[in-house]
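Standup notes, structure subgroup. Blocker cleared on the copper (II) ion input:
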Amino acid sequence: MKTIKDRVAKMSFLGLLLALVTTSFYAPSAMAHGEKSQAAFMRMRTIIWYDLDWSTDSVAVNEQVNIDGKFHVFAGWPETVALPDIAFLNIGIPGPVFIRSESYIGGRIVPRSVSLKLGSDYEFSVVLTARRPGDWHVHTMMNVKGGGPVIGPGKWVNVTGSMSQFKNPITTLTGKTVDIETFNEGTIWAWHGLWFAVGLAWMAYFCKSPVFLPRWIMAHSGRRAELITDTDKKVTMAFMAGTVVLVMFSYGSANSAYPITIPLQGGVLRDIPALPDQRGNVHVKVNGATYRVPGRAMSMDLTIHNGSDTAVQLCEFQAGAIRFLDSAVCEDETLYPENVLAPDGLSSSDNSAIAPDETKTITVTAQDASWEIERMSDIIYDPDSRFGAIIWFNGEDGSRQSAILNEPLIPVFM
Ligand SMILES: [Cu+2]
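Run returned:
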Protein backbone atom coordinates (compact mmCIF):
# COMPACT_ATOMS: atom_id res chain seq x y z
CA MET A 1 0.00 0.00 0.00
CA LYS A 2 2.77 2.33 0.99
CA THR A 3 4.71 1.71 -2.22
CA ILE A 4 1.71 2.67 -4.41
CA LYS A 5 1.24 5.86 -2.46
CA ASP A 6 4.92 6.47 -2.78
CA ARG A 7 4.92 5.97 -6.51
CA VAL A 8 1.92 8.24 -7.00
CA ALA A 9 3.62 10.93 -4.96
CA LYS A 10 6.88 10.59 -6.90
CA MET A 11 5.07 10.72 -10.23
CA SER A 12 3.17 13.82 -9.25
CA PHE A 13 6.40 15.48 -8.14
CA LEU A 14 8.06 14.64 -11.46
CA GLY A 15 5.00 15.92 -13.32
CA LEU A 16 5.16 19.18 -11.42
CA LEU A 17 8.87 19.54 -12.16
CA LEU A 18 8.31 18.83 -15.87
CA ALA A 19 5.51 21.41 -16.04
CA LEU A 20 7.74 23.98 -14.33
CA VAL A 21 10.68 23.34 -16.66
CA THR A 22 8.61 23.39 -19.88
CA THR A 23 6.73 26.57 -18.97
CA SER A 24 9.92 28.37 -18.01
CA PHE A 25 11.45 27.62 -21.43
CA TYR A 26 8.31 28.49 -23.40
CA ALA A 27 8.37 32.14 -24.48
CA PRO A 28 6.04 32.94 -27.39
CA SER A 29 6.72 36.20 -29.25
CA ALA A 30 4.19 38.95 -28.60
CA MET A 31 2.65 40.58 -31.68
CA ALA A 32 1.54 43.75 -29.92
CA HIS A 33 1.37 44.99 -26.39
CA GLY A 34 -2.26 44.95 -25.51
CA GLU A 35 -2.35 48.69 -26.19
CA LYS A 36 -5.98 48.32 -27.22
CA SER A 37 -6.90 46.86 -23.88
CA GLN A 38 -5.59 49.89 -22.02
CA ALA A 39 -8.57 51.90 -20.80
CA ALA A 40 -9.59 54.53 -23.34
CA PHE A 41 -9.78 57.30 -20.73
CA MET A 42 -6.19 56.52 -19.79
CA ARG A 43 -5.00 56.84 -23.38
CA MET A 44 -6.94 60.08 -23.86
CA ARG A 45 -6.47 61.88 -20.58
CA THR A 46 -2.98 61.16 -19.22
CA ILE A 47 -0.05 61.66 -21.60
CA ILE A 48 -0.82 62.93 -25.12
CA TRP A 49 2.06 62.23 -27.52
CA TYR A 50 2.35 64.54 -30.52
CA ASP A 51 4.76 65.78 -33.20
CA LEU A 52 6.24 62.30 -33.16
CA ASP A 53 8.96 61.35 -35.55
CA TRP A 54 10.48 57.90 -36.07
CA SER A 55 13.75 58.35 -37.95
CA THR A 56 13.23 55.11 -39.89
CA ASP A 57 11.10 51.96 -39.96
CA SER A 58 13.78 49.59 -41.17
CA VAL A 59 17.24 49.07 -39.67
CA ALA A 60 19.96 46.45 -39.45
CA VAL A 61 21.23 45.02 -36.16
CA ASN A 62 23.54 47.57 -34.44
CA GLU A 63 21.91 50.51 -36.29
CA GLN A 64 19.96 53.18 -34.49
CA VAL A 65 16.38 54.44 -34.54
CA ASN A 66 15.58 57.86 -33.10
CA ILE A 67 12.13 58.64 -31.76
CA ASP A 68 11.59 62.32 -31.12
CA GLY A 69 8.54 64.31 -30.24
CA LYS A 70 6.60 66.08 -27.56
CA PHE A 71 4.04 65.09 -25.00
CA HIS A 72 1.39 66.98 -23.12
CA VAL A 73 0.57 66.04 -19.54
CA PHE A 74 -3.19 66.33 -19.38
CA ALA A 75 -4.44 68.75 -16.73
CA GLY A 76 -7.67 66.74 -16.44
CA TRP A 77 -5.68 63.69 -15.35
CA PRO A 78 -8.17 60.99 -14.25
CA GLU A 79 -8.47 60.56 -10.50
CA THR A 80 -8.19 56.77 -10.77
CA VAL A 81 -4.62 57.01 -12.09
CA ALA A 82 -1.77 58.05 -9.78
CA LEU A 83 -0.28 61.46 -10.63
CA PRO A 84 3.00 61.45 -12.60
CA ASP A 85 5.13 62.58 -9.65
CA ILE A 86 7.50 59.74 -10.40
CA ALA A 87 7.51 58.86 -14.07
CA PHE A 88 10.00 57.08 -16.29
CA LEU A 89 10.36 57.62 -20.03
CA ASN A 90 10.44 54.20 -21.58
CA ILE A 91 9.78 52.46 -24.84
CA GLY A 92 7.17 49.74 -25.31
CA ILE A 93 8.78 46.82 -27.17
CA PRO A 94 8.37 43.04 -26.86
CA GLY A 95 11.44 42.33 -24.73
CA PRO A 96 15.04 43.44 -25.37
CA VAL A 97 14.75 43.55 -29.17
CA PHE A 98 16.31 47.02 -29.06
CA ILE A 99 18.48 48.53 -26.38
CA ARG A 100 17.74 52.07 -25.23
CA SER A 101 21.09 53.78 -25.87
CA GLU A 102 20.03 57.31 -24.87
CA SER A 103 16.90 59.09 -23.64
CA TYR A 104 16.22 62.75 -23.00
CA ILE A 105 13.37 64.91 -21.72
CA GLY A 106 13.70 68.65 -22.20
CA GLY A 107 17.29 68.15 -23.34
CA ARG A 108 18.24 66.48 -20.03
CA ILE A 109 19.53 62.94 -20.04
CA VAL A 110 17.01 60.77 -18.18
CA PRO A 111 18.31 57.35 -17.20
CA ARG A 112 16.20 57.80 -14.06
CA SER A 113 12.70 58.90 -13.10
CA VAL A 114 11.36 62.42 -13.50
CA SER A 115 8.54 64.43 -12.01
CA LEU A 116 6.02 65.80 -14.52
CA LYS A 117 3.70 68.75 -14.01
CA LEU A 118 0.05 68.57 -15.04
CA GLY A 119 -0.81 70.88 -17.93
CA SER A 120 2.80 71.09 -19.16
CA ASP A 121 4.35 70.06 -22.45
CA TYR A 122 7.75 68.40 -22.71
CA GLU A 123 10.10 67.54 -25.51
CA PHE A 124 11.62 64.06 -25.56
CA SER A 125 14.00 61.98 -27.58
CA VAL A 126 14.96 58.31 -27.41
CA VAL A 127 17.78 56.57 -29.28
CA LEU A 128 17.38 52.84 -29.75
CA THR A 129 19.95 50.37 -31.08
CA ALA A 130 18.57 47.32 -32.90
CA ARG A 131 19.48 44.01 -31.28
CA ARG A 132 17.21 41.21 -32.52
CA PRO A 133 16.00 40.77 -36.12
CA GLY A 134 12.25 40.76 -36.72
CA ASP A 135 9.21 43.01 -37.03
CA TRP A 136 8.69 44.87 -33.80
CA HIS A 137 5.98 47.20 -32.61
CA VAL A 138 7.77 50.15 -31.05
CA HIS A 139 5.72 52.40 -28.77
CA THR A 140 6.48 55.54 -26.89
CA MET A 141 5.73 54.86 -23.25
CA MET A 142 5.71 56.58 -19.88
CA ASN A 143 5.80 54.44 -16.75
CA VAL A 144 3.90 56.26 -14.03
CA LYS A 145 4.49 55.01 -10.50
CA GLY A 146 1.16 53.78 -9.17
CA GLY A 147 -0.50 54.45 -12.54
CA GLY A 148 1.13 51.84 -14.73
CA PRO A 149 2.57 52.17 -18.22
CA VAL A 150 0.92 54.89 -20.30
CA ILE A 151 1.42 53.71 -23.83
CA GLY A 152 1.65 55.95 -26.90
CA PRO A 153 1.30 55.10 -30.59
CA GLY A 154 3.23 52.06 -31.80
CA LYS A 155 5.02 51.77 -35.10
CA TRP A 156 6.25 48.61 -36.80
CA VAL A 157 10.02 48.68 -37.19
CA ASN A 158 11.76 45.99 -39.18
CA VAL A 159 15.18 44.83 -38.00
CA THR A 160 17.39 42.84 -40.37
CA GLY A 161 20.67 41.00 -39.86
CA SER A 162 21.70 38.55 -37.22
CA MET A 163 21.60 38.88 -33.45
CA SER A 164 25.01 37.20 -33.19
CA GLN A 165 26.44 40.36 -34.82
CA PHE A 166 25.05 42.60 -32.07
CA LYS A 167 27.71 44.51 -30.12
CA ASN A 168 27.22 46.76 -27.12
CA PRO A 169 30.67 48.12 -26.24
CA ILE A 170 31.05 50.54 -23.36
CA THR A 171 34.07 52.10 -21.70
CA THR A 172 33.99 51.77 -17.94
CA LEU A 173 34.99 54.60 -15.57
CA THR A 174 38.33 52.85 -15.10
CA GLY A 175 39.04 53.07 -18.84
CA LYS A 176 38.39 49.44 -19.76
CA THR A 177 36.30 48.67 -22.86
CA VAL A 178 33.90 45.76 -22.53
CA ASP A 179 31.05 44.42 -24.66
CA ILE A 180 28.24 44.20 -22.13
CA GLU A 181 26.28 41.92 -24.44
CA THR A 182 28.73 39.11 -23.66
CA PHE A 183 30.67 40.48 -20.68
CA ASN A 184 31.36 37.75 -18.10
CA GLU A 185 28.77 35.48 -19.69
CA GLY A 186 30.68 32.40 -18.51
CA THR A 187 30.61 33.62 -14.90
CA ILE A 188 26.86 34.32 -15.12
CA TRP A 189 26.15 30.82 -16.46
CA ALA A 190 28.43 29.25 -13.87
CA TRP A 191 26.70 30.98 -10.95
CA HIS A 192 23.24 30.19 -12.23
CA GLY A 193 24.27 26.57 -12.81
CA LEU A 194 25.86 26.30 -9.38
CA TRP A 195 22.87 27.63 -7.43
CA PHE A 196 20.49 25.62 -9.59
CA ALA A 197 22.48 22.49 -8.75
CA VAL A 198 22.48 23.34 -5.03
CA GLY A 199 18.69 23.85 -5.15
CA LEU A 200 18.17 20.58 -7.04
CA ALA A 201 20.37 18.68 -4.61
CA TRP A 202 18.37 20.12 -1.68
CA MET A 203 15.09 19.09 -3.30
CA ALA A 204 16.37 15.67 -4.34
CA TYR A 205 17.57 14.92 -0.83
CA PHE A 206 14.27 15.82 0.82
CA CYS A 207 12.16 14.19 -1.86
CA LYS A 208 13.31 10.79 -0.67
CA SER A 209 10.37 8.75 0.48
CA PRO A 210 7.93 9.34 1.92
CA VAL A 211 6.80 12.49 0.16
CA PHE A 212 3.61 14.53 -0.12
CA LEU A 213 0.53 12.48 0.89
CA PRO A 214 2.27 9.87 3.10
CA ARG A 215 4.14 12.71 4.75
CA TRP A 216 0.96 14.67 5.26
CA ILE A 217 -0.78 11.62 6.73
CA MET A 218 2.14 11.00 9.11
CA ALA A 219 2.16 14.63 10.20
CA HIS A 220 -1.56 14.50 10.88
CA SER A 221 -1.44 11.24 12.78
CA GLY A 222 1.00 12.63 15.32
CA ARG A 223 4.14 10.99 13.87
CA ARG A 224 5.62 14.30 12.84
CA ALA A 225 8.92 13.71 14.70
CA GLU A 226 9.69 10.54 12.74
CA LEU A 227 9.81 12.49 9.48
CA ILE A 228 13.11 14.19 10.26
CA THR A 229 16.05 12.02 11.16
CA ASP A 230 19.40 12.93 12.67
CA THR A 231 21.01 12.51 9.24
CA ASP A 232 18.50 15.01 7.83
CA LYS A 233 19.59 17.53 10.44
CA LYS A 234 23.29 16.97 9.65
CA VAL A 235 22.65 17.36 5.91
CA THR A 236 20.73 20.59 6.56
CA MET A 237 23.63 21.97 8.63
CA ALA A 238 26.04 21.04 5.82
CA PHE A 239 23.88 22.89 3.27
CA MET A 240 23.71 25.96 5.51
CA ALA A 241 27.43 26.03 6.22
CA GLY A 242 28.24 25.40 2.55
CA THR A 243 26.01 28.27 1.41
CA VAL A 244 27.56 30.73 3.87
CA VAL A 245 31.13 29.70 2.94
CA LEU A 246 30.32 29.92 -0.79
CA VAL A 247 28.84 33.41 -0.44
CA MET A 248 31.79 34.64 1.67
CA PHE A 249 34.34 33.20 -0.71
CA SER A 250 32.67 34.55 -3.86
CA TYR A 251 32.08 37.98 -2.31
CA GLY A 252 35.77 38.19 -1.41
CA SER A 253 36.99 37.09 -4.84
CA ALA A 254 34.60 39.47 -6.70
CA ASN A 255 35.73 42.32 -4.46
CA SER A 256 39.39 41.72 -5.21
CA ALA A 257 38.77 41.29 -8.95
CA TYR A 258 36.70 44.54 -9.16
CA PRO A 259 37.84 46.83 -6.34
CA ILE A 260 36.17 49.94 -7.83
CA THR A 261 32.38 49.91 -8.18
CA ILE A 262 29.61 52.49 -8.00
CA PRO A 263 26.00 51.73 -7.07
CA LEU A 264 23.20 51.56 -9.62
CA GLN A 265 21.81 55.04 -10.13
CA GLY A 266 18.30 55.89 -8.95
CA GLY A 267 16.55 59.03 -7.75
CA VAL A 268 14.03 61.44 -9.27
CA LEU A 269 14.76 64.53 -11.36
CA ARG A 270 12.23 67.10 -10.21
CA ASP A 271 13.41 70.04 -12.29
CA ILE A 272 12.93 68.81 -15.86
CA PRO A 273 12.32 71.93 -17.96
CA ALA A 274 8.86 72.07 -19.56
CA LEU A 275 8.38 73.68 -22.97
CA PRO A 276 7.05 77.22 -23.21
CA ASP A 277 3.33 77.49 -24.03
CA GLN A 278 2.59 75.27 -27.03
CA ARG A 279 -1.06 76.19 -27.50
CA GLY A 280 -1.28 79.68 -28.99
CA ASN A 281 -4.27 81.95 -28.96
CA VAL A 282 -7.08 79.98 -30.51
CA HIS A 283 -9.70 79.31 -27.84
CA VAL A 284 -12.19 76.50 -28.22
CA LYS A 285 -15.36 76.05 -26.22
CA VAL A 286 -17.16 72.72 -26.46
CA ASN A 287 -20.94 73.31 -26.43
CA GLY A 288 -21.68 69.62 -26.61
CA ALA A 289 -20.18 66.36 -27.81
CA THR A 290 -21.73 63.05 -28.79
CA TYR A 291 -20.38 59.71 -29.95
CA ARG A 292 -22.62 57.94 -32.47
CA VAL A 293 -21.98 54.23 -31.91
CA PRO A 294 -23.29 52.86 -35.27
CA GLY A 295 -21.47 55.53 -37.28
CA ARG A 296 -18.19 55.38 -35.32
CA ALA A 297 -18.26 59.13 -35.30
CA MET A 298 -17.71 61.75 -32.67
CA SER A 299 -19.48 65.05 -33.22
CA MET A 300 -18.69 68.24 -31.38
CA ASP A 301 -20.38 71.59 -31.42
CA LEU A 302 -17.50 74.04 -31.03
CA THR A 303 -17.31 77.79 -30.59
CA ILE A 304 -13.89 78.85 -31.78
CA HIS A 305 -12.41 82.24 -31.11
CA ASN A 306 -9.28 83.19 -32.99
CA GLY A 307 -7.31 85.44 -30.65
CA SER A 308 -4.14 85.24 -32.71
CA ASP A 309 -3.07 87.71 -35.37
CA THR A 310 -3.24 85.33 -38.28
CA ALA A 311 -6.19 83.56 -39.93
CA VAL A 312 -6.42 79.91 -38.86
CA GLN A 313 -8.05 76.79 -40.23
CA LEU A 314 -9.01 73.62 -38.35
CA CYS A 315 -6.63 70.84 -39.39
CA GLU A 316 -6.50 67.97 -36.94
CA PHE A 317 -8.19 66.33 -33.97
CA GLN A 318 -6.22 63.87 -31.86
CA ALA A 319 -7.77 61.60 -29.23
CA GLY A 320 -5.33 59.21 -27.56
CA ALA A 321 -3.02 58.09 -30.34
CA ILE A 322 -5.61 58.46 -33.13
CA ARG A 323 -5.15 61.46 -35.39
CA PHE A 324 -8.11 62.60 -37.52
CA LEU A 325 -7.03 64.97 -40.31
CA ASP A 326 -9.02 67.19 -42.63
CA SER A 327 -7.33 66.27 -45.92
CA ALA A 328 -8.43 69.55 -47.49
CA VAL A 329 -6.27 71.45 -45.00
CA CYS A 330 -3.32 69.28 -44.02
CA GLU A 331 -1.75 65.87 -44.36
CA ASP A 332 0.68 63.82 -42.32
CA GLU A 333 4.27 64.14 -43.49
CA THR A 334 5.87 61.91 -40.90
CA LEU A 335 5.99 58.11 -40.69
CA TYR A 336 3.00 58.12 -38.32
CA PRO A 337 1.59 54.58 -37.85
CA GLU A 338 -1.26 53.97 -40.28
CA ASN A 339 -3.56 52.11 -37.92
CA VAL A 340 -4.00 55.24 -35.81
CA LEU A 341 -4.05 57.77 -38.63
CA ALA A 342 -7.32 58.80 -40.27
CA PRO A 343 -5.99 61.04 -43.08
CA ASP A 344 -9.53 61.96 -44.11
CA GLY A 345 -11.31 61.44 -40.80
CA LEU A 346 -12.13 65.02 -39.87
CA SER A 347 -14.90 67.11 -41.35
CA SER A 348 -16.69 70.26 -40.27
CA SER A 349 -19.84 72.13 -41.15
CA ASP A 350 -17.75 75.12 -42.21
CA ASN A 351 -13.99 74.90 -42.49
CA SER A 352 -13.22 78.24 -44.05
CA ALA A 353 -10.43 80.22 -42.42
CA ILE A 354 -11.25 82.00 -39.16
CA ALA A 355 -9.98 85.56 -39.33
CA PRO A 356 -8.11 87.20 -36.44
CA ASP A 357 -10.54 88.14 -33.69
CA GLU A 358 -13.39 86.25 -35.36
CA THR A 359 -15.63 83.85 -33.41
CA LYS A 360 -17.35 81.00 -35.18
CA THR A 361 -19.57 78.13 -34.08
CA ILE A 362 -19.21 74.97 -36.14
CA THR A 363 -19.97 71.25 -35.93
CA VAL A 364 -16.89 69.09 -36.20
CA THR A 365 -17.01 65.32 -36.79
CA ALA A 366 -14.18 62.86 -36.25
CA GLN A 367 -15.17 59.65 -37.96
CA ASP A 368 -13.14 56.51 -38.52
CA ALA A 369 -13.28 52.76 -37.90
CA SER A 370 -10.25 53.16 -35.64
CA TRP A 371 -12.58 54.34 -32.85
CA GLU A 372 -13.75 50.72 -32.72
CA ILE A 373 -10.60 48.93 -33.89
CA GLU A 374 -8.44 50.68 -31.31
CA ARG A 375 -11.25 50.24 -28.79
CA MET A 376 -11.31 53.95 -28.03
CA SER A 377 -15.10 54.02 -28.16
CA ASP A 378 -15.11 52.09 -24.87
CA ILE A 379 -14.99 55.54 -23.30
CA ILE A 380 -18.81 55.65 -23.50
CA TYR A 381 -19.05 52.81 -20.97
CA ASP A 382 -16.97 54.67 -18.38
CA PRO A 383 -18.60 55.97 -15.22
CA ASP A 384 -16.80 59.24 -16.00
CA SER A 385 -17.71 59.43 -19.69
CA ARG A 386 -15.50 62.27 -20.75
CA PHE A 387 -13.09 62.68 -23.63
CA GLY A 388 -9.69 64.28 -23.76
CA ALA A 389 -8.21 65.52 -27.00
CA ILE A 390 -5.98 68.04 -28.66
CA ILE A 391 -7.26 70.04 -31.61
CA TRP A 392 -4.89 71.68 -34.11
CA PHE A 393 -5.21 74.75 -36.30
CA ASN A 394 -2.95 75.76 -39.17
CA GLY A 395 -2.18 79.47 -39.34
CA GLU A 396 -2.02 81.35 -42.62
CA ASP A 397 1.52 82.43 -41.64
CA GLY A 398 2.62 78.78 -41.30
CA SER A 399 2.17 78.66 -37.53
CA ARG A 400 0.44 75.83 -35.68
CA GLN A 401 -1.86 76.45 -32.76
CA SER A 402 -3.78 74.03 -30.63
CA ALA A 403 -6.29 73.70 -27.83
CA ILE A 404 -6.86 70.99 -25.25
CA LEU A 405 -10.39 69.63 -24.89
CA ASN A 406 -11.67 67.87 -21.78
CA GLU A 407 -15.45 67.54 -21.89
CA PRO A 408 -18.29 65.10 -21.20
CA LEU A 409 -19.26 62.81 -24.05
CA ILE A 410 -22.80 61.53 -24.60
CA PRO A 411 -23.20 58.27 -26.48
CA VAL A 412 -25.92 57.91 -29.14
CA PHE A 413 -26.97 54.36 -29.97
CA MET A 414 -29.15 54.97 -33.04
CU1 LIG B 1 2.22 47.37 -29.80
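Discussed briefly. Residues 32-33, 35, 137, 139, 154 surround copper (II) ion (CB under 6 Å).
Next: hand off to the docking folks.
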